Amino acid sequence: MGRGRAPCCAKVGLNKGSWTPEEDMRLIAYIHKYGHGNWRALPKFAGLLRCGKSCRLRWINYLRPDIKRGNFTKEEEDTIIKLHGLLGNKWSKIASCLPGRTDNEIKNVWNTHLKKRLAPKEEKSGENPEEIPSSPSSITTASVSVSCSDEGESKKEKEQNDKEQHEAMDDKIDKIELSVEPNLDMWDMLEDSSYSEITHENVEPPSSDVRVKGDDGNTLVDLPEILIEPEIWNMINDDLNIALTRDTTAAATPRTHHQNIKAKGEDEKERWLQYLEKELDSWEECAAATAQVEGADPVASYFQALQASPSPLDILY
DNA sequence: AAGTGGCTCAACCGCCGCGGG
DNA sequence: ACCCGCGGCGGTTGAGCCACT
């Protein structure tokens, strides 16, 4: 603890453990519509029985649009190894150099795979791979030009940090080459669609740009942008593909999460599009219905409807 | 088929640094 | 100068999965 501050949230009455699809959807829909200016307050406004930290972690490590799924490539592993040699256990810094990968993921990969893989070499060479090289000589064979991004930072901070990092690196090394993919700046994309950070001083969330009009042309209700932007659905694309690949009528062979991720293909994409269209209709129906009731929550209505008519999400979990 | 041990990874925990009041 | 709230980070945990016996 820092200076005796209170816990980030009152633990009593809050959900812990694995996230349910409903919680995921609530978080996605809320963040996509209102942003996450205040993690502490977010669960309250999103109707989630989670602490802010849990929401933040779930978003950053799993629900973010630019998360890359699947196994690490050889290039990515090499990058991690090299950067770990440079930076040590600075997982967030390493992650910033691997677009689509999270610090948590990298940490897991290091602890479960790379560390062990390097262990035999360490025994042979007598070196400890976890130690940050004390001198540039230990990495003289490499030559790196790193393009890192710290997505959570403001541009000013980012520039400053980048400068400091590069200066620090320059002190340690001459030049190291890493194959780093071009940064995927999904945040820019999201921010363009009224995604900017907000504070939650008022109980009422800000109004949306997205509205549905009634037959008379009057605005009926603010809708989550999930209605019109398929990109947001990509966040859960992989998981939904799992559901869609299952044969819901026959006794399909159960498949693991990893197997399903690998099973993606054109057929799944087609079926996904069909599901998307169907699902968007569901949202519109719920939104139209809740529009008749002042203060009604379209998200809540959506999930109430889901209980009556299960979607692939229900099959998935 | 059942038991078991190892592995994976999502999630939690506690601490730290920063910035605002 | 100090206090406090918050976001972020790194270490750790444990449930679920899988391979092997």
UniProtKB/TrEMBL annotation:
Compositional bias (Low complexity): 132-149
Location of region: Disordered: 117-171
Keyword Endoplasmic reticulum: no
Superkingdom of origin: Eukaryota
Residue span, Myb-like domain: 11-63, 64-114
Subcellular location: Nucleus
Primary localisation category: nucleus
Keywords, sorted A to Z: DNA-binding, Nucleus, Repeat, Transcription, Transcription regulation
Protein name: Uncharacterized protein
Species name: Asparagus officinalis (Garden asparagus)
